[in-house]
Design goal:
Keywords (chain B): ATP synthesis, CF(0), Hydrogen ion transport, Ion transport, Lipid-binding, Membrane, Thylakoid, Transmembrane, Transmembrane helix, Transport
Helix content of chain A: over 70%
Strand content of chain A: under 5%
CATH topology of chain B: F1FO ATP Synthase
Main location (chain B): membrane
GO molecular function (chain B): lipid binding; proton-transporting ATP synthase activity, rotational mechanism
Distance between the termini of chain B: 5 Å
CATH superfamily of chain B: F1F0 ATP synthase subunit C
Number of strands of chain A: 0
Oligomer: heterodimer
Radius of gyration of chain B: 18 Å
CATH class of chain B: Mainly Alpha
Family (chain B): Belongs to the ATPase C chain family.
Pfam families (chain B): ATP-synt_C
Largest interface: A-B, 18 and 14 residues
Number of strands of chain B: 0
């Protein structure tokens, strides 16, 4: 562990702020003139809203899903926009003095921050909904489960962050290697595959976050 | 980095991805088999089956990706160098 230094990653912060700004503009444009018969952008946003609501409702349950829908939706949209923004916007054209711009989620700091947010929120969801009875979950079927359940609290953010980080980085690396070997045409299908997997990873991140929150608020009988 | 550490790191990086790909490969094969059987039995449920299949594929794939992360750490951010 000799030369692991703390490094600030301005490139990741910069791209995530740019993408967040784009997302904000996109959503405020879509909700500016709301009509009864949605069309165009408003239609798309309503479709997204429905999608996120269904996701939250199936994972968290009818009773409390409304409290957590904004969080799940934010996670989904942020991860989705980061993944696609990193792949679709030609960041390579912008030269930086140090580091390079790319998908914010290809940076381990971003994904660990998101995963820790998920951890905090499922603890908060459990404690605020059930009080101290939340800790019954740790000894739920039998007290033998206690060490495993405690270990799970550490592996959840670990797997959540590494899954997202690894997938996005792997996409970028595969495209990079292919562009290095065959610069023409051949990388294009792989790029589409990358877009597809990044969309699925955003969905998985949001689904798992919702599932963990749902697990914490679930009533045992 | 001395040569024995770098050699061991490269071998370990290869093994991490290679061995990590075995389990998820078998798992994805099983899942695809189940999905094909399901579609053959009930062609009208194809859309639902495909969605679930892709979601579970991504879960299995992430196991190999963990191996890839370990391999990348060994190659580019080796803690023992």
């Amino acid at each position: 562990m000799a030369n692991w230094k703390y490094q600030t990653t301005w490139a990741g912060i910069l791209t995530s702020w740019i993408l967040l700004g784009a997302l904000l503009v996109f959503i405020s444009l879509g909700t500016k003139k709301m009509e009864n018969d949605p069309k165009g952008l408003q239609n798309l946003l309503e479709f997204l809203w429905d999608y996120i609501r269904d996701l939250a409702r199936t994972q968290i349950g009818e009773k409390v899903y409304r409290d957590w829908m904004p969080f799940i939706g934010t996670l989904f949209l942020f991860v989705f926009v980061s993944n696609w923004g990193g792949a679709l916007i030609p960041w390579g054209l912008i030269k930086l003095p140090s580091g390079e711009l790319g998908a914010p989620t290809a940076d381990i700091n971003t994904t660990i921050a998101l995963a820790l947010l998920v951890s905090l929120s499922y603890f908060y969801a459990g404690l605020s909904n059930k009080g101290w009875r939340y800790f019954e979950y740790y000894v739920h079927p039998t007290p033998i489960m206690l060490p495993f359940k405690i270990l799970e609290d550490f592996t959840k953010p670990l797997s959540l962050s590494f899954r997202l980080f690894g997938n996005i980085l792997a996409d970028e690396l595969v495209v990079g290697v292919l562009v290095f070997l065959v610069p023409l045409i051949l990388p294009i299908p792989v790029m589409f595959l990358g877009l597809f997997t990044s969309a699925i990873q955003a969905l998985i991140f949001a689904t798992l976050a919702a599932y963990y929150i749902g697990e914490a608020v679930e009533e045992h009988h | 980095m001395d040569s024995i550490t770098s050699a061991a790191s490269v071998v370990a990086a290869g093994l991490a991805v290679g061995l990590g790909a075995i389990g998820p490969g078998l798992g994805q094969g099983n899942a695809a088999q189940g999905a094909v059987e399901g579609i053959a039995r009930q062609p009208e449920a194809e859309g639902k089956i495909r969605g679930t299949l892709l979601l579970s594929f991504a879960f299995m794939e992430s196991l190999t990706i963990y191996g890839l992360v370990v391999a990348l750490v060994l190659l580019f951010a080796n803690p023992f160098s």
